[in-house]
Structure formats: structure tokens, C-alpha cells
Design a protein that fits this description.
- The complex is a heterodimer of chains A (163) and B (749).
- Chain A is an alpha+beta fold and 163 residues long.
- Chain A is built from 6 helices and 5 strands, in the order E-E-H-E-E-E-H-H-H-H-H.
- Chain A has a 5-stranded mixed sheet, with helices on both faces.
- Chain B is α+β, with helices and mostly antiparallel strands and 749 residues long.
- Chain B has 3 domains: 199 residues, Aldehyde oxidase/xanthine dehydrogenase, molybdopterin binding domain (Aldehyde Oxidoreductase, domain 4), CATH 3.30.365.10; 160 residues, Aldehyde Oxidoreductase, domain 4; 219 residues, Aldehyde Oxidoreductase, domain 4.
- Chain B is built from 21 helices and 24 strands.
- Chain B has a 7-stranded mixed sheet, with helices on both faces. A 5-stranded mixed sheet of chain B has the order 12-20-19-18-13, sandwiched between helices. A 4-stranded mixed sheet of chain B has the order 21-22-23-24.
- In chain B, strand 1 and strand 2 form a beta hairpin.
- In chain B, helix 4 runs parallel beside helix 5, helix 15 runs parallel beside helix 20 and helix 19 crosses helix 20.
- The longest helix of chain B is centred in the first third of the chain and has 28 residues.
- The chains are: A alpha+beta (163), B alpha+beta (749).
- Chains A and B meet through helix 1, helix 2, helix 3, helix 4 and helix 5 of A and helix 7, helix 9 and helix 19 of B.
């Protein structure tokens, strides 16, 4: 048994220590957002946040996570009460198939947590590890800019409704 | 068992006995019949009503007022689920949120074949448009009968019919008399586009909230009670034979439930997913395969293709002896094999219970894939149900159908237990059916006035669809001990075509000859990839138009307009050029230095669907050869617009994806194995190459047919970028991809 802290809650996980975090999140904890894309750390669709850093959960074994704080997209907000990054992606309609989007959002969230006013160049550089095949890049960039603005205004803290 | 379990629409009806409007029994039976047998007499019905003519195959209204729209097409991330909901809401006069859309499911929806060719709006959207309008008219007529008033005195609003005296009947009350159980009429009382409230609006997509909050949105997210996890061990190369493998050690691995072997089909099932992954690796290491070196020389692919036996079709022969050219140009363009490259490898869940097989799959065609899987399993089709659940974007025929077959084959070995099969990255990259390699040879001559007098276009290509229809298209069925033969490939018929899609020029040339050299032999596994042959044919045709414009000393946009009679085509060309600032900025760019280039391209997809023109600005680093699309402006005419943001999203995506294909992508292989098996060996566009801006301008055509926008951008984007590179460097590149090395070599030559 390994204790894993995900989205602020402790979970007792019965999995081999070499199990990649991704499989624990998706199967043991039944969280959908982090996606299997390559299992090789090449595409970013499995991105989650560990202690404030964007991490590729498909190549991060469980044994490295004891005592650390894992955050997934589910931990940021809900449809009824979306976080600024979620609200921004909805408002920009920043998805086609959407398979890569949760990973994009988590990497962007990690950036915005340490730099609330990133430049366009900083956002592009930050998102470099994450692949999108539908070509939704322009909308993703717009959504991250929008999320930064939302986070920057008191409005975002006080009013988490979509519209 | 007393007989095969029936999981199709007939049993729903027979068992339903509902007083609500249900599917018509005859309609359901018709789903199983051959299309030519169910065509109604008289004028052709609009869209897919032609093959599924009953109104209640498309629109169902329950007695409690719930409204459902049905489509046999599969939502792949194009957003049509939202667009269909808009169409139905508009024509029924109900709020957008009052409608639920059910997508492809062999138990619930009409058979609309494949979700492909930008046909969803045209086929299914049109069927829903007319069905909804006719349903509304029937409800009005029924209300008129009950009110004893003329229908023209009534109005519909918010899912009810209202009389001048204030009496109202909800749609749910009106359908109790089974009034929707009728065949559609050829014409419909469609609403005036001027009055639209929901159609034409950028309604937010209904699927996005779940996708950005971690909701269950994909087949990958399914967790059925008792579900187990399977992995397939694919052969290392095409045609490899499994000689021996040591199962004993793998069977003893913790959590392993079963090893499934049937000929060259090898899979492992485990309780937990990572146990299955580890067992797959162990099994792969323990398996010995006999491989054969039979792949062609990748570096000589154009010659390999053009030397293969071909069936030759003259698909256009237009002659005007009074016009002859004097200045002649020739060019050959090539395209390598290219990968769909879905970000999420294919996945499926299957369950075999009580003699029936249910498969949840991201296939593009639940009915044809069901036929193939049923044939593979030796089961009657009605005992197999396929339910579409979204997967990662596929852009054509990727591994979806194969993963569905894998899941079904493994599930049959474990009756009762749902089996989830997830392909690994290297399996998707190594086994998906690629977009075919192609060669085009063009020659043309200009007359004294600088007009094209004579045009010759020849294309060499495989078919562009090896989709299931029979079991032989499925990898699992090819690999089992009693394998199904791969069906003989066929050229896809014109006017839509396959390898020859968009090979016939839309331009007005007095002499024009187009040859399609269809190559039956398929050195690599290939099938449908977004836009089929139109990607390469438009790349070739529109590149060559630029070369000829250069020969004529003409501006590329003016040169196109000089040969283009189609008014809607002219409109998108002029719109894209104007919004881009074509004539102004192109001259300015030339003054700014040699690293910026401007390119233009245009096509009408399939010469019968959406029009698209794209102007591009590309920067080329002359030291490294690196090209980056800086800015693109597109104009598109997709007919009547249902959701403008949906069209914009499709065109933006087409430009970025096609730019990636065009600059970077090529399937790699040695004489035996595919060697591009992940994102390191098959690189695609990343954020450092994303344009600064993409602008999409839509020309709406109220009241005109839907034309579909999913694929119209692929060819124009490629040629627009290629033309901009030629403009920037002064060198014409004709072999895809237009890689950094090729550009650098051209600059240095």
C-alpha cells in the first residue's frame, strides 16, 4: 500500500511501486482527465501537476510520489464551478477531439501558477512538450492568455460561473 | 440457447410495445436491406433520408415531450453533434437544450455507412434538417385536426403548437397518435433562413465542458463492472509468422488472467492495466517470429510506385484544336506515406455475454465494422452490436476498427467479462493504415496571351479506402490461424474519387487530359486519410498553377481568376486575397528581404463540396532551411452555415495539420519493418512552429445545401505553404514533405 495525495485527498493505493502514476490515476482512482497518449513521455497528454510542476504521469512511477501533492484537472474545478483555466478553454472553444486538452491545461496551469502574466513566447515555449493533432493550437494559446486574464482579475476569484 | 441473440433495432421495436412514437418496424428492417432495395419510388429524398426514409429514424418525440435526434454518423471531434442539435432545434421550433442527439449505434440509429468525406453535414445534417421540418409540419397538422382549425392559423413555439385562442398542445401530446411513423417527402417546409434563431449561431459545443473538467468523454474512459485489461502483441512486421513463444512464465506473472493466441494473433489479459502492459512486454520478448524483407526502397518510392502494374483510366479528355500552347512546363510531385497520428492510440471495449457481442468503439462506421467483426467471429450480424464512443481524433481510417476487432476476439475467449483493449503508441504508429504515397506528373502549355492552353495531369496512387466491409480488412482477422484474405482494392468512383480526388481541374482549360493510374499492389498497409487523394492532387495542381503563373509573368491570384469561371470559387479566392492584403503585402514582403514568402492556393473539395482559398505568409531561415507558417488567411464557402465557430475550428485545424503533413511528415521503413513508431521517429508540428495568426472568413450561403468543411482545407493549405516557400526562396520544392533539409539543399543548389 502506498499513500498518494491527489487533489487534496489521501488515497491508499494497492499497486506495484513501478506502476506509472497515469494508470493509478485512471484505474485505481477513476480519474479521466490524464490521458494515455504514448507511455513514453513524448506527447504530454498525461500531464498532471506534482508539487507545482508539470509532470508526465505516464513515465513517473508511483514510488516517486510518496508525500507529494498530485493535482489533476479534476482537482481544479467542475462544469458547475470551473477554474479560470477551464472557463477559459470553454469560452475559447479550445478543443476539437479534445484528447490532448487536459494535458495542455495542466501544463498551462503550472505555468500560470508561477507566472501569472506570461508572454505569448513564454506560453509557446512552455507548451512545447505537448502535442495536438487536430491543430487546435491557436485556440489553446488564446485560452491560456484568457486564463491568465481571468486569474488576474478579482472577478475570477469571486465569480466562477461560466458566463 | 434457442437462437442467436438479436441486438439490432428490430428487437427494440418488437420488445418495446411502446405507445410513444417508436422506430418503424419497416424502417428498421430496411436498415438491414441493401441500399438499392429500399430506395423509395419517385424523387430522391434529401441526404440520408434517401436510404432511411422514415421520419422517426431521425427524430423521436416521446409522450413525455422528450425529443431525440438520431444520426448514424460518428462524432470525431468535428463538432457536428452540436450542429445537428442546432438544426433539429431550429426546424422543430424548440429550445436548443431540449434536444438530445444520439450518434452511431447499430441498435439505435440509421445505417449511414462511414463518417467520412466531409459527408456528415451533407448526408445526416440534411436528413435531420428535412426530417425535423416535416415532423414540425405533421405536428402542426395533427394539432389543426384536434383544434379543428386550419394549420395556417397555428404557430409553433417552444415545443408546442399554439392556437390563436391560446389553446396549446405540447409536441409530446401530439405524437401519441403515432403521426411520425411515415416516410419523408422529397420537399420540406423549411424555415426561412432569415428567421433562424439557432442555426447560424456559434453555439458552444456540447461536448467541451466534460472534456475540460475530466468527465468521461472517450471510449478510453469506460470502466464497466468486472472489466479486464488486454494488450495485443503485434507481429514485428507485415506478414511475420509466430514460430514459438513461451507462455508459461508470462502466465505466472501477477494479475495475468489469460493468454489468447490464434495463429499470429497474440494477446494477454490481466486484471490491472499495468499488469497487462508488463505481460505484453514479457510476451513480446518471449515470442519468436519469422519475418520477410519485402518492403520497397523508401528512397526510391516514386519509381517503385510508377513501375508497379496499374489500371489506367482517362478521367478527363477535353480538346479544342483551335487553341494551342507555345511555352511548355513539366513537373513531377511526390507524396510519401503519411500517418494519421492520433494522439490517443486506438482503444475498444467488448463484452461477449449470453451469445451476443457488444463492442464500444471509436470506429467511423458502426454498421460496416459490425459486418466485418461478425464475419470474423462467425456470428450473425444481429447478434453483434457496435456502439460508437468518441476516441482521440482519427482523421480517417486509423486503428479504431482493428482495436474493435481485437477487443471482440479477446472478449469471446472470456465470456461475460468486459475486455478493454488499448493499443500502445508503437502499435498505432506501426500498424495503422497510412495515407497512401502518390506521384503526379503534370505538363501544360501557355498560349501567346499567357493563358493555359493545354493541361495534362497524371496521378499514380493506391486506393484510398481499405475500410472494413468484410473481415479481411481487420488486422485480427488477417492474423488468426484461419485468416481472412485482404479484399481486393478498388478505385473509389468519381465524381468524388479516391486517388483521383480533385485530379480534375476546376479551372477552365480548353485542352485538358487527366489520367488516373490506379495501383492495386499495396506495399504498405494503407487506407483513408483526411481528404484522400485531394491532399496531394491539390498540392500538385495548385503548385503547378503557381509555376505557370511565374512562366506567364502573372500574379498568382490574378492568374487563377483568369481561368476560373465558378462564381463561388471566385468569391473565396477574392475574399482570401483581399483579407490577406495579397497584392499590397506581397510587394512589401519582397522589399523586406528574402526570408519571407507569400503563397496562395484554392480548391473546391471533390469539385462538388466546400470551397476554400488560403493565403499564407511563410518565413524561411536560409541558414537552416527551417520554414514556418507565420500567418494564414482562409476564405471558405461551406454552403448554409449551421455553426460558424465549428467551421472556423475545422479550417484552423486543417491549416495547422496540413502544414505539419507538408513540412515534416513521412512514414519511415527499412526493407522489413516500419521504423517510424513514435513521436521521435515521426515528428509532427509542435508549438514552436505554430503560426502567429490564422484568420478564417466564412461566406455564408443561406438556403443552400450544406457542403461540409472537414477536409476542404487540407489541399489548399499544403499548396499555399509550398507556394510561399517557393516565393521566399526562389526554389520550387515538389517532393513532400518540404523538409528543412530539402529546403536547405534547394537554397544551396
Amino acid at each position: 500500500m502506498i499513500t498518494l495525495k491527489v487533489n487534496g485527498q489521501d488515497h491508499q493505493v494497492d499497486a506495484d511501486p513501478d506502476t506509472p502514476l497515469l494508470y493509478v490515476l485512471r484505474n485505481d482512482l477513476e480519474l479521466n482527465a490524464a490521458k494515455f497518449g504514448c507511455g513514453l513521455g513524448q506527447c504530454g497528454s498525461c500531464t498532471v501537476i506534482v508539487d507545482g510542476q508539470a509532470v508526465l504521469s505516464c513515465v513517473t512511477p508511483l514510488l516517486l510520489l510518496e508525500g507529494k501533492q498530485v493535482t489533476t484537472l479534476e482537482g481544479l474545478g467542475t462544469v458547475a464551478a470551473p477554474a479560470p483555466i477551464q472557463r477559459a478553454f470553454m469560452e475559447e472553444q479550445a478543443a476539437q477531439c479534445g484528447y490532448c486538452i487536459a494535458g495542455m491545461m495542466m501544463r498551462a496551469q503550472a505555468l500560470l501558477m508561477r507566472n501569472s502574466k506570461p508572454t505569448d513566447a513564454q506560453i509557446r515555449a512552455e507548451l512545447e512538450p505537448n502535442l495536438c493533432r487536430c491543430g487546435t493550437h491557436m485556440r489553446i494559446l488564446r485560452a491560456v492568455h484568457r486564463a491568465a486574464r481571468l486569474m488576474d482579475t478579482a472577478d475570477a476569484a469571486g465569480d466562477r460561473s461560466i458566463r | 440457447m434457442n437462437g442467436p441473440v438479436i441486438l439490432d433495432r428490430r428487437s427494440v421495436l418488437a420488445g418495446g410495445g411502446a405507445l410513444i412514437v417508436s422506430f418503424s418496424l419497416r424502417g428498421a428492417v430496411a436498415q438491414e436491406a441493401k441500399p438499392q432495395e429500399l430506395k423509395p419510388q419517385g424523387p430522391k429524398l434529401p441526404g440520408s433520408l434517401a436510404t432511411s426514409p422514415y421520419l422517426d429514424s431521425w427524430i423521436r418525440i416521446d409522450a413525455d415531450g422528450r425529443i431525440t435526434a438520431f444520426t448514424g454518423k460518428a462524432e470525431l471531434g468535428q463538432g457536428f453533434r452540436t450542429a445537428f442539435q442546432q438544426i433539429a432545434a431550429e426546424q422543430l421550433d424548440v429550445p436548443f437544450d431540449a434536444i438530445k442527439v444520439i450518434t452511431a449505434d447499430t441498435k439505435l440509429t440509421a445505417n449511414e455507412g462511414y463518417t467520412s468525406g466531409s459527408h456528415s453535414m451533407q448526408d445526416s445534417g440534411t436528413a435531420i434538417l428535412h426530417a425535423a421540418a416535416q415532423v414540425r409540419a405533421l405536428l402542426m397538422a395533427e394539432a389543426a385536426r384536434r383544434f379543428e382549425l386550419p394549420a395556417e392559423n397555428l404557430r409553433s413555439e417552444n415545443a408546442a403548437v399554439i392556437a390563436p385562442d391560446g389553446r396549446r398542445l405540447g409536441y409530446g401530446e401530439l405524437v401519441a397518435a403515432d403521426v411520425l411513423h411515415v416516410q419523408a417527402q422529397p420537399t420540406s417546409p423549411l424555415k426561412d433562413p432569415q428567421s433562424f434563431k439557432v442555426m447560424g449561431q456559434p453555439v458552444p459545443r456540447v461536448d467541451i465542458p466534460a472534456k475540460v473538467t475530466g468527465g468521461a468523454a472517450y471510449v478510453q474512459d469506460m470502466r464497466l463492472p468486472g472489466m479486464v485489461h488486454a494488450r495485443v502483441v503485434r507481429p514485428p512486421s507485415y506478414g511475420a509468422e509466430l514460430m514459438e513463444f513461451d507462455a508459461a512464465a508470462v502466465e505466472k506473472m501477477p494479475g495475468v488472467i489469460r493468454i489468447v493466441r490464434d495463429g499470429n494473433f497474440l494477446a494477454v489479459v490481466a486484471e490491472k492495466e499495468f499488469s497487462a502492459v508488463k505481460a505484453m512486454h514479457a510476451l513480446a520478448a518471449a515470442a519468436k517470429w519469422r519475418e520477410s524483407a519485402k518492403l520497397p526502397n523508401q528512397n526510391d518510392l516514386p519509381n517503385v510506385l510508377t513501375r508497379l502494374p496499374s489500371q489506367d483510366f482517362a478521367i478527363l479528355s477535353r480538346s479544342d484544336p483551335s487553341v494551342t500552347g507555345t511555352r511548355r512546363l513539366e513537373a513531377t510531385y511526390t507524396r510519401p506515406y503519411q500517418s494519421h497520428g492520433s494522439i490517443g492510440p486506438s482503444c475498444a471495449v467488448a463484452q461477449f455475454a449470453d451469445g451476443a457481442m457488444t463492442v464500444w468503439t471509436h470506429t467511423q462506421g458502426v454498421y460496416p465494422d459490425r459486418q466485418a467483426i461478425a464475419e470474423m467471429l462467425g456470428m450473425p450480424q444481429p447478434s453483434v452490436r457496435l456502439i460508437h464512443v468518441e476516441g482521440s481524433g482519427c482523421y480517417g481510417h486509423n486503428g479504431a476498427d482493428d482495436a474493435a476487432a481485437d477487443a471482440a476476439l479477446i472478449a469471446r475467449a472470456l465470456p461475460g467479462r468486459p475486455v478493454r483493449v488499448q493499443w500502445m503508441r508503437e502499435q498505432e504508429h506501426g500498424w495503422e493504415p497510412y495515407g497512401p504515397a502518390m506521384v503526379t506528373k503534370l505538363s501544360a502549355a501557355l498560349d501567346e496571351a499567357g493563358r493555359i492552353a493545354d493541361w495534362n495531369f497524371a496521378v499514380w496512387s493506391n486506393t484510398h479506402s481499405m475500410r472494413p466491409g468484410g473481415a479481411g480488412s481487420l488486422l485480427a482477422a488477417q492474423h488468426i490461424a484461419k485468416p481472412f484474405a485482404v479484399p481486393a482494392p478498388k478505385p473509389l468512383p468519381l465524381p468524388e474519387g479516391g486517388g483521383d480526388r480533385n485530379a480534375i481541374p476546376i479551372y477552365n482549360f480548353p485542352n485538358a487530359h487527366v489520367m488516373h493510374h490506379f495501383i492495386p499492389a499495396m506495399p504498405l498497409r494503407i487506407s483513408a486519410m483526411r481528404a484522400l487523394g485531394a491532399y496531394h492532387n491539390v498540392f500538385s495542381l495548385e503548385s503547378f498553377m503557381d509555376e505557370l503563373a511565374g512562366l506567364a509573368g502573372a500574379d498568382p491570384v490574378e492568374f487563377r481568376l483568369k481561368h476560373l469561371d465558378d462564381q463561388r470559387g471566385r468569391d473565396v479566392v477574392e475574399k482570401a486575397a483581399q483579407e490577406f492584403g495579397w497584392s499590397r503585402d506581397r510587394k512589401a514582403a519582397q522589399n523586406r528581404g528574402q526570408n519571407l514568402g507569400y503563397g496562395f492556393a484554392f480548391a473546391r473539395y471533390k469539385n462538388l463540396a466546400a470551397y476554400c482559398a488560403i493565403a499564407s505568409e511563410v518565413e524561411v531561415d536560409r541558414e537552416t532551411g527551417r520554414a514556418r507558417l507565420v500567418r494564414a488567411v482562409a476564405a471558405v464557402d461551406a454552403g448554409q452555415v449551421v455553426n460558424p465557430d465549428g467551421i472556423t475550428n475545422q479550417i484552423e485545424g486543417a491549416i495547422v495539420q496540413s502544414t505539419s503533413w507538408t513540412l515534416y511528415e513521412s512514414v519511415a521503413f527499412d526493407d522489413t519493418r516500419i521504423t517510424s513508431i513514435d513521436w521521435q521517429t515521426y515528428p509532427i508540428l509542435r508549438f514552436n512552429s505554430v503560426p502567429d495568426s490564422i484568420k478564417v472568413h466564412i461566406i455564408n450561403r443561406p438556403g443552400q445545401p450544406f457542403l461540409g468543411s472537414g477536409e476542404t482545407g487540407q489541399g489548399p493549405a499544403a499548396a499555399s505553404v509550398a507556394n510561399a516557400i517557393a516565393h521566399a526562396t526562389g526554389k520550387r520544392l515538389r517532393n513532400l514533405p518540404l523538409s528543412r533539409k530539402r529546403i536547405k539543399d534547394a537554397i544551396d543548389a
